[in-house]
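Below is a filled-in request sheet from our internal design queue. Each sheet records the structural input a requester submitted and the sequence that came back. We keep these sheets so that new team members can see what a complete request looks like end to end.

REQUESTER: design group, bay 2
PRIORITY: normal
MODE: inverse folding
CHAIN LENGTH: 345
BACKBONE (tokenized):
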């Protein structure tokens, strides 16, 4: 058996010699190949542990044609990603699932249009096995970029685009945004509220439009003066709430399309001496920790499983990469939403 010199990195040959198998057999075991009897697998695994062998990543990539990495592309500027708990919760779910499958997460952020060239080069360069992309906007070039790069992709959120003729639909994971909005507005109606306003998200994101549609589903005779547009941020929620109060001071409830905007709206109501929920009842959307529990008063909101959606996105992509089901893309997933009642309504 060849001696390993002190301080040198263990080699695959040393593993094979320690296990008493050929180099080819050791390579198949280390790289996850089939066709090796269990007693030999056990010997190789034991030799790997004893020697502290770490596979050479470049060599492993040549053998498996996999990099062991997945890109997570978020179509939002850095300042929003690190200030909005939604993104950290979804990334946490993705990371947990990828880690459980020994896969590295590579985070790619989009600060502006110039970044799309960089992302295109990276995805086309064979650095990752697949991509997860979320928070896309209507005119977002990311779907076309991943398609041209030939990178298997799963999207977070229902896409606003349709596949071209002959193309397979790309799978996505989303919450039941429209159904959740209906739950929120029906809850406010059941409380006896008659002038229910809505602060929507940006019109170029399907989640915002689905929640607006859910609001309209319940209020068929909706007054357009009771709707104001926000941008899924605290500041935009405050601006929209002030706008609604100027336009409709008689409103008695507001369904708000996410918890961050709801926290901004609550601040404006508190500053103006308007009591919640006595004078104006508030319902948000997301049930983000810690936002919903720490508002004043604690926020009634529609819960979506943000971390769970992240895990599902990663799971669908790994299924595509493993070519289960003869390589057929898995179906998209819509996760349920539920109403969580707290003190704001």
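RETURNED SEQUENCE:
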């Amino acid at each position: 058996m060849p001696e390993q010199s002190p301080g040198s990195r263990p080699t695959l040959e040393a593993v094979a010699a320690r296990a008493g198998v050929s180099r080819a057999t050791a390579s198949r075991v280390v790289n996850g190949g089939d066709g090796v009897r269990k007693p030999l697998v056990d010997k190789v695994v034991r030799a790997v542990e004893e020697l502290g062998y770490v596979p050479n990543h470049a060599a492993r990539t040549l053998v498996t044609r996999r990099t062991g990495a997945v890109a997570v592309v978020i179509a939002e500027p850095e300042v929003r990603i690190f200030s909005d708990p939604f993104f950290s919760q979804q990334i946490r779910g993705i990371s947990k699932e990828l880690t459980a499958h020994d896969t590295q997460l590579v985070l790619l952020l989009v600060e502006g249009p110039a970044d799309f060239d960089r992302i295109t080069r990276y995805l086309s360069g064979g650095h990752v096995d697949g991509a997860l992309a979320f928070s896309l906007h209507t005119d977002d070039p990311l779907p076309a970029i991943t398609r041209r790069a030939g990178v298997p992709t799963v999207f977070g959120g229902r896409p606003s685009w349709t596949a071209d003729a002959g193309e397979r639909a790309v799978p996505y994971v989303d919450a039941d945004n429209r159904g959740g909005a209906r739950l929120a507005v029906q809850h406010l109606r059941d409380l006896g509220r008659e002038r229910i306003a809505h602060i929507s998200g940006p019109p170029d994101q399907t989640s915002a439009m689905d929640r607006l549609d859910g609001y309209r589903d319940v209020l068929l005779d909706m007054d357009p003066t009771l709707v104001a547009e926000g941008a899924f941020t605290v500041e935009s929620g405050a601006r929209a709430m002030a706008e609604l109060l100027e336009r409709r001071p008689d409103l008695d409830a507001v369904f708000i399309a996410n918890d961050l905007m709801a926290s901004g709206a609550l601040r404006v109501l508190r500053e103006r001496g308007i009591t919640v929920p006595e004078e104006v009842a508030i319902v948000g959307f997301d049930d983000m920790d810690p936002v919903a529990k720490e508002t004043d008063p604690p926020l009634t909101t529609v819960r979506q499983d943000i971390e769970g959606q992240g895990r599902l996105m990663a799971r669908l992509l790994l299924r595509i990469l493993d070519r289960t089901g003869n390589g057929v893309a898995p179906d998209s997933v819509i996760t349920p939403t539920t109403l969580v009642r707290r003190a704001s309504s």
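SHEET NOTES:
- The first strand starts at residue 69 and ends at 74.
- The chain has a mean pLDDT of 89.
FILED BY: M.R.
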